[in-house]
Amino acid sequence: MSKSNSIAMEPFIVNETSVSRAYARVLLRIAQGRGKEVSPLVLSVSEFEEEDDKLRKSLDTLLRSKGKCFVEDVAYTIFPERLWQMAQGDRAKLFSFYKMAFPAYQVMNRTANGRGLYFERMVMYGRGPCDGNQLEYMLAQYERRGGVRDSMMQVTTFDPERDHTPSAQLGFPCLQHVTFVPTKSGLVLNAFYATQQIFDKAYGNYLGLKQLGEFMGHELKIPLVRLNVTVGVAKLERISKTDIGLIPVIAAAEAAISKPQELGTVGQNLHPAPAEN
Predict the structure, then answer these.
(1) CB of 209 within 8 A of CB of 191?
(2) Could you tell me the superkingdom of the organism this chain comes from (predicted)?
(3) This prediction's pTM
């Protein structure tokens, strides 16, 4: 007999044109359906239309009222967009800025950040080539070689040495690893989560992954064309489905997906780039 409360389900598949619309579909599936989770969740975003301001603002308002981090702050754990803007397109400066700032991030919130942050694991893993900077290693190899194998283009955030613990609950890391696939159409980013908290993490997760993909696309000199996220168990645990604070968020989510999509061709007919055997 299983000791888990999760139920074996058919995959819930989302294919959308913006981070907002993708999040809206996941939230509505759980909030208006039976139970409090979907397992697994397979989510894909292309086109990357503008975010829906009403959904983003309504969610941030609710997050603030519950003492949770804003969407932007969650996204920052995956990619520090503000530091990238300060670096003005220089990735060496970005990595340097982050290394200087990371100790302060931990001090600011020991409870949430004490075990690390996702971008920290990507660029300060603690061991490996380039002094543990997995992103720099990939980019340097890509730049100096005529082709690279697909399996080289990946970073891990989970570390068995640090993360396999007997703790009943472990808030970090839920994101396990990320892969990058250069194609003829542009860059595809694939992210894999063991679990994901839908209320207070998912929107920021998707936004941060999009920003990470845009950064990598900039360095690889190709556009980001698709974001794929696979989640083992997506949960709505940190708020009740009957909480009145969810009402405006659900209304904004319904409005977001009712808007006509802007049809385009970005991300269609993707083809793998040549790779070494």
Answers:
(1) yes
(2) Bacteria
(3) 0.90
